[in-house]
Design a protein that fits this description.
This protein has a two-stranded antiparallel sheet. The protein has four helices and two strands. It folds into two domains: 106 residues, no CATH class; 39 residues. The N and C termini lie far apart (84 Å). Strand 1 and strand 2 form a beta hairpin. Helix 1 packs antiparallel against helix 2 and helix 1 crosses helix 3. It is mostly helical.
């Protein structure tokens, strides 16, 4: 690397291209964080054995601190760190920035268009349900006559 070139740490904890793609990033971080936290709770529910491996009996807000809670918390924190490292890679950042820019170009339907489309879909679904139920009833009657 030439002496005048500066090397940037792309795998660190600093945010790459800060200020760009903010909504897409926040959404990805929030939804990914929710999945990681729910996964940590599921892990705790799976490995927990009541009254075993207790470190401290009674803590405020936490209750009995067990080794299983510590394991689930460490796995959850590692998952959050991994989420940040994945979402902060240059390819991921560019994808989220481009996604947000593309979403701004979308022409969204008006509420009247959405309402009209909802009525049409509901009517067609109801019509198909009635038609299929009728065909089913007719076919059942025919099969009972034949067999």
């Amino acid at each position: 690397m030439p002496p005048h070139a500066t090397r940037t740490n792309t795998m660190g904890l600093e945010i790459i291209k800060k200020g760009q793609g903010t909504w897409a990033r926040v959404t990805a971080y929030v939804l990914g964080g929710i999945l990681v936290v729910l996964g940590a709770f599921a892990l705790y529910g799976t490995i927990n054995r009541p009254n075993e491996f207790v470190i401290v009996d009674d803590l405020p807000l936490i209750g009995a601190l067990s080794g299983y809670k510590v394991i689930a918390a460490v796995v959850g924190l590692a998952g959050l760190l991994g989420l940040h490292l994945v979402l902060n890679r240059p390819n991921s950042v560019d994808l989220m920035i481009e996604t947000e820019q593309e979403m701004r170009r979308v022409s969204w339907p008006t509420s009247k268009e959405v309402w009209n489309a909802t009525i049409v879909v509901s009517f067609v679904s109801l019509l198909l349900a009635v038609a299929m139920s009728s065909f089913d009833w007719i076919l059942r009657k025919l099969f009972h006559l034949v067999f």
